[in-house]
Amino acid sequence: MIKVALADDHKLLRNALATLIDSYGDCHVIMEANNGKDLCDLLKYEQPDVAILDYNMPEMNGYECAEWLKENHPAINVLMLTMYDTELMLIKLLQSGVKGFMKKDIHPTELHRAIHSVMTEGFYYSTYTSSKLAGFFRESKPVPFWEKLMSEQELSFMRLVCSEMTYKEIAQVMKMNPRTVDALRDSLFEKLEVKSRVGLAMYSIKHGLVNI
Q1: Under CATH, which number does the domain 2-135 receive?
Q2: Distance CA 165, CA 168 (A)
Q3: Terminal CA-to-CA distance of the chain, rounded, Å?
Q4: Bridge partners of 77?
Q5: Apex CA 97: angle with CA 64 and CA 52, to 5°?
Q6: Which architecture does CATH list for 145-206?
Q7: In sequence order, which residues have a C-beta less than 8 Å from that of residue 70 and are 6 or more positions away?
Q8: pTM higher than 0.85
């Protein structure tokens, strides 16, 4: 019997998943949590074989929880429920110890296969996910890593952020509306998990987007 833990702040979806998983006969949901922090607390009493985490959760999201599990309970196989499937996001989740990715509309049979796959093979990647990752690393000629992760517009913005220009001046140089530049900045804050212009600049320097 494979012991499964669920962490998702949407109670209806979580309950539906628990019912579905229990119906397989060889899997049993032993704990349910509203967020990553609650799940970590529950692990004091019992440990699952597989943890299925939603990426978007309050207090401790799926990425943060996966990192914590990798550090504190590496034997737990982590599957992530996420609607984000950019190459950058998938690579970040792999680095955090996630063993597989699933969309929330995954077919019941595929969910069962995913649980068994991480238990027997140590990973689960759908054909779609595998194709995205393979395409990311397979190129006919070498391409700088960050050129694959960001659009040309994002790369240009990141370089300009490291200058002394204001956001308004950056908008003029990029021939964009200031509000569009603000939206681009906020998107990069979320994608790169930084909170300020200084954070963006430090990220650019660290990964070689600009030279100092």
Answers
A1: 3.40.50.2300
A2: 8
A3: 56
A4: 50
A5: 70
A6: Orthogonal Bundle (1.10)
A7: 78, 96, 97
A8: no
Query: How confident is the prediction for the chain on average, in pLDDT?
Result: 84
3-class SS of residue 48: coil
For residue 31, what are the β-bridge partners? 5
Q: Which residue positions in the chain have pLDDT lower than 50?
A: 130-132, 134-138, 140-143
Q: Provide the residue ranges of all domains of the chain, joining segments of one domain with +.
A: 2-135, 145-206
Distance between CA atoms of residues 133 and 123, nearest Å: 14
By three-state DSSP, how is residue 51 classified?
strand
- Encoded amino acid at 176, one letter: M
Residue 137, both tokens: 């690393």
Q: How far apart are CA 86 and CA 128, in angstroms?
A: 12
Q: What are the strands of the beta sheet with 27-33, ordered from one edge?
A: 27-33, 2-7, 50-54, 77-81, 100-102
- Local structure of 165: helix, strand or coil: coil
